[in-house]
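tool_log.txt
---
The assistant was asked to compare two proteins side by side. It first ran the structure predictor on the initial sequence, then on the second. Raw inputs and outputs are pasted verbatim so the downstream comparison step can read them without reformatting.
(1)
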Amino acid sequence: MRILIVEDEFNIADAVATRLKEENYDVDISTDGVDGLDNALTDIYDLIILDVMLPKIDGFTILSKLKENNIVANIIMLTARDSLEDKLEGFSIGADDYMTKPFHLEELVARVNSKLRKNNGATESNLLEVFDLSLNLKTAELSCKTTNDSIMVMCKEFLILEYLMRNSNQIVTKDNLYDKVWGINNDSISNNLEAYISFIRKKLNIIGSNVNIKAIRGLGYKLEVKNEKVEK
């Protein structure tokens, strides 16, 4: 899962990012409101840690714009102000949680883990199910419910397939896939994504799934049931 930290105090952001990476999260950092909003609007993040007092655009404004654009990431607000009014404002706009600076790093990590476990879209057995596919989010085992065959999907294959399955009702752009899997401002070679898509398609065929990864010219990819047409 991917987390965005929007925090202008880099030492704080770096310490939080380092600790979250130990929990096996992918983490990006933005140190001002404009960059933070731009990154958050890509809609590739599962959770955003958002400071209130930021250069250029404040956290409350960012939160409002994210809600206006239907960004569904969990939002944990950070602030040096502990007034009830500030907290109520954040919650009224749509924040999921609120922490006052200075905070204990392990408490923040615990809240992040709690939010993502509660809202990861999986069943109690950690299964993500779309069409005839079932992806175990803990073991990375991909199964076909029709044939009962299964296969392991590893590393970036897993991240790509998970993102496609979570967004199975829409076209996922190549840029969003690159950002989700390789990170913002990545330097990955342009044909890496196509190679991994090819690997996943082969595994779908191996387990006998009727699901295909459809390439939509000039846009990106979408999961579809074979022989089902996708509007361009």
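(2)
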Amino acid sequence: MIPRVKRIASSDPCCLPPPRGRPLRAPARRRLVAALKALADPTRLEIFRAVALRPEPVCVCEITARFRVSQPTISYHLKVLRRAGLVTVSRRGVWAYYAPGPGGLASLRALLDEAPKEASGPAP
């Protein structure tokens, strides 16, 4: 719930309350929160960047070698990124390859771009 802002009697525009808009729809809010929570960890952010900046899928062995954390920790971070829809995994033999999720980075950008538009749109 958004707290109410008391209106201060002033002609100065900096004292006006922010414009009111409707909140994000629940599905968009859930996706955005999941993605932002996933990227809030510095290691996950860097793992996501390593995957998103590559034109081809990245082998988990390359990801593990790049970071100073254990393989189980990398696996956990990749699981969080998968659940948030930011990366996908494919198997080739014993190796797992990670790529940006269908629209992983694009969907995150779209959600961030959509937030101000949807919040300022007319209420249903």
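---
observation on (2): The radius of gyration is 20 Å. The beta strands are 58-59, 87-92, 95-100.
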